[in-house]
Amino acid sequence: MSFIVIDVGGTNIRFGYAETEIAPLSEIKNLTCADFPSIEDAINAYFHTLPSNVISKITATCIAVAGPMMGDHVDVTNNHWQFSKSKLLTHLPSDDLLVINDFAAQALAQINPESTGNQPILQGNSRPDAPLLVIGPGTGLGVAALMPAHQNHAVIEGEGGHVYFTPRDDLEREIEAFLRKIHGFVSAEHVISGPGLEAIYQFLCHRDGVRHDNDTAAQIGFAAMNNDLRARQAVLVLFNALATVMANNILTMGCWRGAVIAGGIIPRLVPLFQESQFKERFCSAGVMSDILEKIPVWLATDPLTGLHGARNAIASSISMARIQI
Fold first, then answer.
1. 58: Cβ–Cβ under 8 A, 6 or more apart, which residues?
2. Domains contained in the chain, number
3. What are the backbone dihedrals phi and psi of residue 219, each rounded to the nearest 5 degrees, phi first?
4. Domain containing 47 — which CATH number?
5. Strand, coil or helix: 257
6. CB neighbours of 279 closer than 8 A, spacing ≥ 6?
7. DSSP letters for 267-301
8. Is pLDDT above 60 for 324?
9. In the predicted model, is pLDDT for residue 27 greater than 90?
10. CA-to-CA distance for 190 and 126, rounded, in angstroms?
11. Does residue 244 fall inside a structural domain?
């Protein structure tokens, strides 16, 4: 079976092609979502880059999408696209279409987190019989858990980035109050994401009476890596808040196997990890602190992780039970 895999985020859409379920990906392309009015337009642009002999072989398509999967209609989170699965299938050269949450794909790419090139962040004792947390700040905040299931793997997928943000210190309480005036409901991803980093930095500038120029997350990250103290503080706040959300999710879902941090934000800023209180915050959970001290944490650095996970979804009988024919 030859197939196309597509990873749709808030900012980018990535494509890949594989001739079999275990073949390496080829024909990899990365496009910007904002450049296209619809997902159909982006997919058509990609297919125009493929040789005709490749298109003729395609039998299935798997799309990993940022957003909840509830019925035929898909509304992409942090993106202007919406589409119908059944109507989209008529635009594709394949017979079958599988649409999954983008963090279901991120999780399915982490079947062996120790052997996928992940960078260790915290050492620990991984339990392979337990769920694995996969979490990632990017345009939003994705959360999923990978569960072993009779020589296969199932994914607990939800919208964990949209739970209410829980501050742990006075500074975070000030940030939460600042954001509540803007959003009303302050979700975790209002703080732990690219836009969240921008919001933290804006708050720090506002607090200090300093003018800012609507700096982007990339600009703030670059400034932080070049010793700008206010930008550096914004990054450290994001790391600390991420640790709290990760610990809460691990305890909620029993992810004793460990946690993988995915997404596009953290790999660029990882040199600053040691300056944060990430480890202290991650391991601080009252009577559960001893358990969290034993949980390993990895950082995923492969930008194609979502495509690899979409390929694994096609190979999974659990995922393929949700296919659109």
1. 2, 3, 4, 17, 92, 93, 94
2. 2
3. -65, -40
4. 3.30.420.40
5. coil
6. 122, 243
7. HHHGGGGGGSSHHHHHH--GGGHHHHTT--EEE--
8. no
9. yes
10. 31
11. yes
**pLDDT confidence of residue 53:** 87
Q: Are residues 91 and 174 in the same domain?
A: no
* Polymer length in residues for the chain: 325
Per 3-state DSSP, the chain is made up of helix, strand and coil in percentages (nearest 5) of 40, 25, 35
Q: Measure the CA dihedral 101/80/195/199, to 10°.
A: -130
**Using an 8 Å Cβ cutoff, are 297 and 122 in contact?**
yes
pLDDT digits (tens, 9 = 90+) for 29-39: 999 999 999 99
Strand order from edge to edge, sheet including 153-157 = 119-122, 297-299, 258-261, 132-137, 141-148, 153-157
Mind giving me the DSSP string for 163-222?
SBP---SHHHHHHHHHHHHHHSS-BGGGTSSHHHHHHHHHHHHHHHT-------HHHHHH
Residue 118 lies in a domain: yes
Name residue, tokens 């959360």.
Answer: 143
| Enclosing domain of residue 241 | 110-299
In whole angstroms, give the CA distance from residue 258 to residue 297. 6
Q: Which of 235, 169, 225, 164 is nearest to 199 (CA)?
A: 235
N-term to C-term CA, the chain: 15
Say yes or no: 14 and 90 in one domain: yes
Same-domain pairing of 235 and 96:
no
**Is residue 150 a part of any domain in this protein?**
yes
b/e per residue 8-39 (b: at least 16 CB within 10 A): bbbbbbbbbbbeeeeeebeeeeebebeebeeb
Q: What letter would DSSP give residue 118?
A: P
Strand pairing category for 258-261 and 132-137: parallel
Look up residue 41 and give its two tokens.
């337009």
pTM for the model stands at 0.90
Taking residues 179-198, report their average pLDDT: 97
